[in-house]
């Protein structure tokens, strides 16, 4: 079978739809593994920032941690909005409606610039919020400097994501991996240079981490722009010709499909943030143990998250080609893959919780608590695989509003209240809070998959009519 990474060969399998789970799984993995690698490289940047700032000074580590906590919700919401380009372009490409694709990309770039403006403004005006939260003046100063530096890279990272989603929607997924790996190298070098003041540059601490991040964002954007502009096969799309001001029709479509995605991602991220704050009321040992379990679970989550992006592309392209039955089959195959991978992660957590915890710390009390939470994390791995796979399949059909309502209900009306009731009011402690996480993710997983089944169950009839 031709590689799904080549521009023309990547969709050859769409001409002869796969009928077996094995063949479809290979197609999704071919698309998805580079996306998984890109996600892992991206989360590695946060790990590098944390480690290098932590080795410089505790105040700088706190500044990076606090600054990232402020930046990530904005980043997640905007990336969710721009993620609408993936199913939009995938369906257009599947339908061979090539003339419109370039226009969608240009309008996506305009939108990325427009969305950068409020994010930059907010990042540079969070001082009063930090003061209200009671942070020390030294930490506020460092955090504000970090956020100011990061804000210079915001337009670049949003534009990079537009070009990334365009490439991935066509089945060209390796460039984003290579560019992100290059970004990771620049991140290490930039941190080393600017945090510690090497090669004649000033010693900036946490602020240096922010400038390194901004530089990395611009390097990644320019590298992806060079690849996209220079690829001969893309000339048919006229990506950078006939440039016009933002057009309501196209920007409106991206916002209509993407805003629910951004809100959904924001609600999931905020649920974990709220749970972390509630953990903070239970003592430092519990906070440390919770951080270990969540960090490891976040790493394993990058695998199904990358695959869910591939599911979106696969389902979207097949749907655009009016291969409705095959799009349903591809969606459920992808969901099964995500779940199977997370089952493997769950087994590892169940079998080696103490060994995993000891990677992060040598404190026996923290290890014991973290091991208990890792076993609970193993339970929600399966739910996480189901929900992220189901979400990816629904995005491929441009179905985003109902999933947003599901996430609101599952995370904010059930997960957080239940966790607070069990963990704080009924004094179950961290186990009660994690029970709320598990409940929220499980409900979201069930509802997303039922939704995909409901939408696609009539595809047999629709296929015959088409």
Describe the overall structure.
This protein has 466 residues and is mainly alpha-helical. The chain folds into two domains: 31-246, no CATH class; 256-466, no CATH class. It is built from 18 helices and no strands. The protein has helices at 12-15, 21-54, 58-82, 85-94, 98-123, 127-132, 137-151, 154-169, 174-196, 206-230, 248-279, 284-320, 324-351, 353-360, 364-396, 401-425, 430-456, 459-465. Helix 11 (248-279) packs parallel to helix 16. It is globular, with a radius of gyration of 22 Å. The two termini are 27 Å apart.
Described by its quaternary structure, the protein is: single chain
Low-confidence stretches: 1-18
**Mean pLDDT, rounded to whole units?**
88
Percentage beta strand: under 5%
Cα distance spanning the termini:
27 Å
**SS elements, strand count:** 0
Please tell me the total number of domains.
2
- What coarse outline follows from CA principal-axis ratios? globular
**Count of DSSP-assigned helices:** 18
Along the chain, the helix and strand elements come as HHHHHHHHHHHHHHHHHH
The percentage helix is over 70%
Which class best fits the helix and strand makeup? mainly alpha
As a whole number of angstroms, the C-alpha radius of gyration is: 22 Å
Largest sheet: none
């Amino acid at each position: 079978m031709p590689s799904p990474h080549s521009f023309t060969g990547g969709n050859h399998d769409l001409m002869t739809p796969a009928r077996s789970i094995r063949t479809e799984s290979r197609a999704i993995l071919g698309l998805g593994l580079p996306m998984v690698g890109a996600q892992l490289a991206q989360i590695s940047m946060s790990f590098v920032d944390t480690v290098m700032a932590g080795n410089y000074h505790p105040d700088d580590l706190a500044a990076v941690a606090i600054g990232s906590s402020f930046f990530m919700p904005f980043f997640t919401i905007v990336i969710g909005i721009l993620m609408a380009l993936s199913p939009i372009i995938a369906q257009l490409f599947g339908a061979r409606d090539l003339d419109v694709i370039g226009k969608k990309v240009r309008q996506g770039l305009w939108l990325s610039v427009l969305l950068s403006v409020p994010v930059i403004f907010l990042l540079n005006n969070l001082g009063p919020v930090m003061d209200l939260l009671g942070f020390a003046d030294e930490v506020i100063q460092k955090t504000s400097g970090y956020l100011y530096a990061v804000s210079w890279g915001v337009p670049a990272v949003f534009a990079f994501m537009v070009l990334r989603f365009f490439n991935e929607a066509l089945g060209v997924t390796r460039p984003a991996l290579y560019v992100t790996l290059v970004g990771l190298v620049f991140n290490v070098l930039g941190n080393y240079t600017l945090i510690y003041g090497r090669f004649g540059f000033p010693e900036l601490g946490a602020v240096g981490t922010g400038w390194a991040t901004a530089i990395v964002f611009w390097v990644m954007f320019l590298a992806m722009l060079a690849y996209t502009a220079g690829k001969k096969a893309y000339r048919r799309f006229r990506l950078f010709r006939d440039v016009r001001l933002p057009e309501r029709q196209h920007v409106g479509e991206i916002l209509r499909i993407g805003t629910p995605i951004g809100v959904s991602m924001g609600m999931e991220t905020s649920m974990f943030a709220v749970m972390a704050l509630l953990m903070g009321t239970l003592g430092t040992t519990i906070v440390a143990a919770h951080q270990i379990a969540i960090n490891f679970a976040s790493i394993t989550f990058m695998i199904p998250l990358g695959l869910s992006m591939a599911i979106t592309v696969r389902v979207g392209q097949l749907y655009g080609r009016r291969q409705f039955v095959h799009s349903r089959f591809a969606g459920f195959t992808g969901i099964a893959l995500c779940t199977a991978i997370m089952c493997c992660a769950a087994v590892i957590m169940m079998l080696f919780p103490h060994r995993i915890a000891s990677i992060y710390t040598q404190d026996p009390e923290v290890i014991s608590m973290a091991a208990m939470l890792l076993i609970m994390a193993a339970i929600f791995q399966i739910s996480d695989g189901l929900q992220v796979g189901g979400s990816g399949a629904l995005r491929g059909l441009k179905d985003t509003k109902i999933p947003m309502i599901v996430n609101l209900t599952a995370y904010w009306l059930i997960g957080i209240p239940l966790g607070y009731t069990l963990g704080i009011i009924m004094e179950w402690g961290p186990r009660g809070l994690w029970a709320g996480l598990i409940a929220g993710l499980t409900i979201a997983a069930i509802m997303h998959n039922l939704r995909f089944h409901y939408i696609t169950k009539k595809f047999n009839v629709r296929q015959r009519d088409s």
